[in-house]
# Entry
Amino acid sequence: MKNLKNSAVATVIAMTLGLTAATASATGIGINFWRNYEPAEPAMPATDIAGVVPQANWNNIGTTLPDSGSPRTNTVANLLDASGGNSGATVFFTAGKIDAPVGHIDDTLGPDYSLMNGYLDTRTSGGITYKPLVTVSSIPYAS
# Structure
């Protein structure tokens, strides 16, 4: 049950980023926290439309490092917006791991399922607890 709770929290964060940007402009920025290490999951295709505010061009953000004693981190600049254009925004994340509660994505369930399948999770290793932290900067939309 812990994984499902964390999945919901991380997914709400991802979808809220898209929702917040979408309400401030005609387009949004969607971030899909994607498990791209063993067992790797397929990235969401740019043409898939998903989310609370449906959009395409979700940024598949992950790390290729396997689970080990260190946290997963990644910084990605020039995030795409829903139209596929460069938004200029940057995301940084750190987490204990990126995980998928179901194992592998069943493509027959659709893009919303794929979007909600990956999440940032807390992990303790060597007495250190690594908690998820997501920072998005240089968001180009008016407040």
In short: The CA atoms of residues 6 and 121 lie 6 Å apart. The beta strands are 31-33, 59-61, 72-76, 90-95, 97-99, 119-121, 123-125, 128-130, 133-137. The first strand starts at residue 31 and ends at 33. Residues 1-16, 18-25 have pLDDT under 50 and may be disordered.
